[in-house]
Design brief:
alpha/beta, globular, about 250 residues
């Protein structure tokens, strides 16, 4: 059974490190990817023998696919992002539901599905996943609509395309619903990417937070998942030591 492919999320570590320092360290430690970084650094990542696991597909987390008035803009942005992803060998893009603003959950699924169906053929042809991100609406993103795994799975089923999956953020879903291992195992066919962080605090995956990451990683590995796990936490101390410890912890 292959090892979990671990990735570093650019924004959460470049508060301390330069882009060049982060990319070089990721390669030396054994990470397979640096993700969600500006296009100006993509060639540097490739030069270090790393992949870019995922990038943002369109603008605006709050003003997302659950608004028909945004569909023309998002379609244009996604089409451009799919072309770039194909060119650079990036396997996945992040998409967002947007905030509810009073919208019923079933209507939100219907509208998001309409928006995604505009670009699924292009994504399928390019071999690029569109990963709807699961975020918590309790602490970090009030009113965000895709805040439960069940909602995200229903959306995937409504679109019915192999190119549409979920970005399952372990930190966010611990806040919203817990029961991580059962939920991941039962819905692994709908998950195209993972993110990590410790809860509470969104910091290191250490013993001061409540998620048993080695157990969660073993469950992901045993599920047959072949994608990436991206680390998106804010280090409490030295960023390099945090990365080394995280890689070892999750290298189950």
């Amino acid at each position: 059974m292959s090892r979990i492919k671990q990735s570093v999320v650019y924004w959460s570590f470049t508060r301390q490190a330069t882009a060049e320092e982060l990319i070089k360290a990721a390669a030396e430690i054994g990470f397979e990817s640096v993700e969600m970084l500006p296009e100006e650094y993509w060639e540097k990542v490739k030069a270090e023998g790393l992949q870019i696991a995922i990038i943002g597909g369109h603008q605006s987390l709050r003003d997302g696919l659950n608004k028909r008035s945004s569909h023309d803009r998002i379609e244009k942005e996604l089409r451009e992002s799919i072309d770039k992803a194909k060119k650079f060998g990036i396997p996945a893009l992040i998409v967002f539901s947007g905030n509810r603003e009073g919208l019923d959950d079933e209507a939100g699924i219907e509208i998001c599905a309409e928006g995604l169906k505009r670009v699924t053929s292009q994504a399928e042809d390019a071999g690029v996943l569109l990963c709807m991100e699961l975020l918590n609406s309790k602490v970090n993103h009030p009113d965000y609509q895709c805040d439960k795994t069940s909602w995200g799975v229903k959306l995937c089923q409504a679109v019915d395309s192999p190119s549409v999956k979920l970005l399952y953020d372990i930190y966010h879903m611990q806040i919203m619903e817990g029961d991580l291992i059962r939920t991941i195992t039962e819905n692994i066919e709908y998950i195209g990417h993972f993110h990590t962080a410790g809860n509470p605090g969104r910091n290191d995956l250490d013993d001061t937070q409540e998620i048993n990451y080695p157990a969660v990683m073993r469950a992901i590995k045993e599920s047959g998942y072949q994608g990436y796990v991206g680390h998106e936490f804010l280090p409490k101390g030295d960023w390099l030591e945090a990365l080394k410890k995280t890689y070892a912890l999750c290298d189950v």
